[in-house]
Design goal:
Pfam families: Mur_ligase_C, Mur_ligase_M
Protein name: UDP-N-acetylmuramoyl-tripeptide--D-alanyl-D-alanine ligase
Number of strands: 15
GO molecular function: acid-amino acid ligase activity; ATP binding
Shape: globular
Largest sheet: 9 strands, mixed
Strand content: 5-15%
Keywords: ATP-binding, Ligase, Membrane, Nucleotide-binding, Transmembrane, Transmembrane helix
Length: about 525
């Protein structure tokens, strides 16, 4: 009886460790969009997450189970298991910036991982109880890779389930008579443009937009199935991409009538491979709209867009004289922006908005152009433009008490970062502070682009607070290379520590803090 209790106690404790650690690695896999190549790349780049001795503390327990007296092995394994859980917090829940979401897919993945573990436990218990404890100890140490293996094992089932939902969503879109679908993509600015266009159209049409960051094929599918109604007249569909073909997949799902391309820049180079692949993927929206006989509103101030050849169907929006929608007479200050806009039909209107920065101006202009294309006169948009609010975490101005905060936490690309720094430069000198963990997912260009970020920041801020040890060195080198005083550079491991330090810097009520990017848990 004592032997059985000892064995069961040891096995149960190891099963608890397996469950605990599988949540940790499933959390990372979810942040890698369930893409095994991205997940394996993360494991290679973050060896410190799984190589320390504390990650392998249960393995000696399994070996001891083979050598200790039968009545003791289970209790020794229990002790080692508790030590393992204490030394290795999962960080998938309350302490995470973006907690693990227990979707149906995650539940199926965990069921596979835990089911294999239970099967291993049952077989080895039947063969030889000490072997069970050793096998479970080894299984626990392999959980970083088991998450990916189970993900691959579940892949055929996931594809069938996903296709069923995609077909249902496509039928919903096609079944709404008179629905106008507006596809919105770009390396940056697509979420802001979507929100601004929604605000401009809502007074005139019944509009639905993809919520939050639902901008993948499955995210758009879920948004359609959960929110698109037969009474909606316009559907604003944000389209994100990490691989060539992602935008084309979403276009096949929603069949857009009008397109908006906000910008093309270096982002997700690890998965795209090259800037040309990024451009080709973003322009998949243009190709889909043109095939349907529609038109695409493009940010003509973006050289990566205006420098290409097109086969008709382009609506140019920008500040150049050759633009169809031309922005002029721009006046910017800490309290907002004033500008004029001319339409292709000759109509002109003056606008005023509380939004800050060149990036917001470009996004607002694209939204105005798209709304005008949908039949709303420029004059009918002036009041809505004046009422526009900043999109959360995108050059959002906040009063943080000890300083004014420009929250640009969702900015994760070099071009957007340059615009954010330009916005910070417009505030009073002496108290301008940038807090950033740098830019990621830029492949071989990551070091150089973070170095350039440091050089750009040197001309726009008075203090630099760098977060984390991965991107800090190249940003610091860039700052120093541009002549920035080393005494005004600080490095912290956590954003909150950086914000606390910012409150202690000189400048008083004139302090302005730019929070430039905030990395997810997979980069902590």
């Amino acid at each position: 009886m004592l032997l059985m209790l000892s064995t069961l106690a040891g096995a149960a404790s190891l099963l608890a460790v397996v469950c605990h650690m599988s949540l940790r690695w499933t959390h990372i896999l979810q942040q890698c969009s369930y893409q095994n190549p991205s997940y394996y790349r993360w494991l290679c780049e973050n060896r410190a997450q799984w190589t320390p001795a504390r990650r392998w503390v249960v393995l000696p327990a399994g070996l001891l189970a083979l050598a200790l007296p039968l009545a003791l092995w289970g209790w020794v394994v229990c002790a080692f298991s508790l030590l393992h859980i204490w030394l290795n917090p999962s960080r998938h829940g309350r302490g995470a910036k973006k907690p693990l979401v227990f979707t149906a897919r995650v539940k199926r993945l965990l069921a596979c991982e835990w089911g294999l573990c239970a099967l291993l436990c049952a077989v080895t218990l039947w063969l030889w109880p000490p072997l069970c404890l050793f096998a479970l100890s080894l299984y626990t140490c392999l959980t970083p890779w088991l998450a990916a293996w189970c993900n691959a094992l579940n892949a055929p089932v996931e594809r069938r389930i996903a296709q069923k939902y995609i077909d249902e969503a496509r039928a919903i879109v096609q079944g709404i008579p008179g629905l106008t679908v507006v596809g919105i993509t770009g390396s940056y600015g697509k979420t802001s443009t979507k929100h601004y266009l929604y605000a401009l159209l809502s007074a005139h049409r019944h509009v639905y937009m993809t919520p939050g960051n639902y901008n993948t094929t499955l995210g758009v599918t879920r948004a359609i199935r959960e929110g698109l109604l037969s009474t909606h007249q316009v559907f604003l569909c944000e389209m994100g991409a990490r691989h060539v073909g992602d935008i084309a997949d979403i276009c096949r799902l929603v069949s857009p009538d009008l397109g908006i391309i906000t910008a093309i820049g270096e982002q997700h180079l690890e998965t795209f491979g090259s800037p040309e692949n990024i451009a080709r993927t973003k322009l998949e929206l243009y190709d889909a709209v043109r095939e349907k006989g529609g038109r695409t509103v493009m940010n003509w101030d973006c050289g990566a867009i205006s420098g290409r050849r097109y086969d008709g169907g382009v609506i140019r929006c920008g500040s150049g004289g050759d633009c169809d929608y031309r922005v002029s007479h721009v006046e910017q200050g800490p309290h907002g922006t004033r500008f004029s806009m001319a339409a292709p039909d000759g109509e002109t209107a003056d606008f005023e908005t509380r939004l800050l920065g060149r990036a917001n101006l470009q996004d607002v202009a694209l939204a105005i152009a798209a709304a005008h294309q949908l039949g709303i006169p420029l004059a009918g948009l002036r009041m809505a433009v004046a009422r526009l609010q900043s999109v959360e975490h995108r050059l959002q101005l906040k009063n943080a008490g000890a300083y004014t905060l420009i929250d640009d936490a969702y900015n994760s690309n070099p071009q957007g970062a340059a615009v954010a720094l330009e916005t910070l430069a417009g505030f009073p000198a002496g108290g301008r502070i940038v807090i950033t963990p740098g830019l990621v997912e830029l492949g071989e260009r990551e070091y150089q682009l973070n170095f350039e970020l440091g050089r750009q920041a040197a001309a726009c801020c008075d203090y630099a607070i760098l977060i984390g040890q991965r991107q800090a060195p190249p940003i610091r080198e860039g700052l120093l290379d541009a002549g920035f005083p080393e005494s005004r550079i600080a490095v912290f491991d956590d954003v909150q520590d950086g914000l606390s330090h910012a409150a202690s810097l000189p400048g008083g009520s004139e302090r302005t803090v730019l929070l430039l990017n905030d990395l997810p848990d997979s980069y902590r």
